Amino acid sequence: MPSALVADTGLIGNAFYLEVDGTPLTMLTSVSGLDIGVEVTNLRQTSADGKAVWTRTLASKQSVGTLILTRLAVVDTTSDGIWTWFQETSLKGALDAARKTGSVVLYGSDSTELGRYNFTNGWISKIALDMLDVSSGTPLKETITLEIDFLERVK
């Protein structure tokens, strides 16, 4: 087996952060939706009599998606960047102002940046609090739904 294939130990992120407009905004406990792909379209060539000659799949535009970000719930929403962004833009229908560029950044145990996913035109469509249960004794988490127009892995 070529040594270049096993030289890398893999990507293990110990901390995840959300940066918006170049500023770290919040620490995250989990992230999903870091999917990068293209939409597929079928091209079908036919003969003059309408019979299929061949079909080919082609790449279309990049598929856009939704990032699902989870973090510990904050106590004071008035001083929190996520809540301020959501309340001052999305909730008021000001989507032009709500659209931001940003990154989901992955850090290793030694605080070095291991990975970075940049997004464009992201805006918060929902913030949800975990189910309230007095018997659980676990910290409450918020789930932030972030709609994006473009995503790329740059590191």
Describe, in plain words, how this protein is organized in 3D.
This protein has one domain (11-153): Pnp Oxidase, Chain A (Roll). It is 10% helix and 50% strand. The protein has helices spanning 3-6, 81-88, 95-98; strands spanning 15-20, 23-28, 30-32, 38-46, 52-62, 66-72, 100-107, 113-129, 141-147, 150-153. Strands 1, 2, 3, 6, 7, 8, 9 and 10 form an eight-stranded antiparallel beta sheet that branches. A two-stranded antiparallel ribbon has the order 4-5. β4 (38-46) and β5 (52-62) form a beta hairpin. The longest helix is centred in the middle third of the chain and has 8 residues, at 81-88. The protein is elongated, with a radius of gyration of 21 Å.
How do the helices and strands line up, and which of them pair or pack?
Elements: H1 3-6, E1 15-20, E2 23-28, E3 30-32, E4 38-46, E5 52-62, E6 66-72, H2 81-88, H3 95-98, E7 100-107, E8 113-129, E9 141-147, E10 150-153
Antiparallel strand pairs: 1-2, 1-7, 3-6, 4-5, 6-9, 7-8, 8-9, 8-10
